[in-house]
Amino acid sequence: HAKHLGGNRICIYSSDLNDYAQDTIALETNLRLAIDRNELEVYYQPQVSLISSKVSGVEALVRWNHPHFGLTSPQVFIPLAEERGLIQAIGHFVLDSALQQLTLWDKDGMVIPKVAINVSALELKPGYVDAIQAALTKYQIRPSRLELEITESVLVSDGVETMQILEHLRGLGITIAVDDFGVGYSSLGQLRRLPIDALKVDKSFIDNIHNDAEDEAIVNAIVTMARALGLRTIAEGAETDQQLSSIEKLECDCVQGYVLGKPMSSTELSKWMNFNPVVN
Ligand code: C2E
Ligand code: MG
Ligand code: MG
Ligand code: MG
């Protein structure tokens, strides 16, 4: 690295790399404190059924609002949290917040059938089932109102232990959705054996679904296969009305994307539920 470039005292750091390292250290130190300092917040993005036009659920997406760094993307801090052993604490915070929020919406008479949370591979360890059960009991939420989103790579590469945990969770009535489906490497044969209930069709297939015959064909094939296997489909990341009509035409069960609603704070979601003509 820069240190070894010469014997003189002038270090020729790549400033970007240096910034990155500094930021990463600062971010990590701060992430450790973020939960206690109440800097994490859970946002919710509606998932809408194309059969009933009603909200079928919401996906919980964590946000980190740091007083100095501002709003940091989970795409940045979730990998860091995984690396530094902080993901379990964050996962627990999201689970607890989301289930509590569900009870609050219930009290307000809002119909949110289920909440989906993203689960990292590192969380799927012995003890996870107990933690989930404890949270469900704490808030008196039926297990069928909780969906866990797990990426394809986790399902394919992780061993017997992970499968047993997922099977145990499904046995309780919790549902499992494969996140970002289609960009991983699961074979069709594997898919049949996995303990899953739904496929979330990756946004990359949705982006050009309205004007690319091949993307349309892929989504069509996914939906057909899912139906044959008894799995629900959720199209991810729909931004335009054109994409939405293609998704409807191909008979995906549900859709989630900016065209219907961005991830929102719980308060914003309540307002969205009251004012959105699509879903009432
Ligand atoms: P994901 O689970 O695939 O979530 C979907 C991402 O797509 C979200 O990004 C969402 O805001 C974004 N999105 C939804 N609709 C649209 C759209 O129409 N257009 C565009 N451009 N984007 C859309 P977000 O919230 O930044 O989260 C990124 C990723 O971070 C998530 O991808 C998930 O993998 C991870 N993540 C978020 N929250 C958690 C969490 O609580 N735990 C774990 N383990 N991972 C999380
Ligand atoms: Mg997800
Ligand atoms: Mg996804
Ligand atoms: Mg993703």
Automatic annotation (TrEMBL):
Residues in EAL domain copies: 24-277
Source domain of life: Bacteria
Coiled coil: none
The protein's name in its UniProt record: Diguanylate cyclase
Species name: Novimethylophilus kurashikiensis
Residues of the full protein shown: 446 to 725 of 725
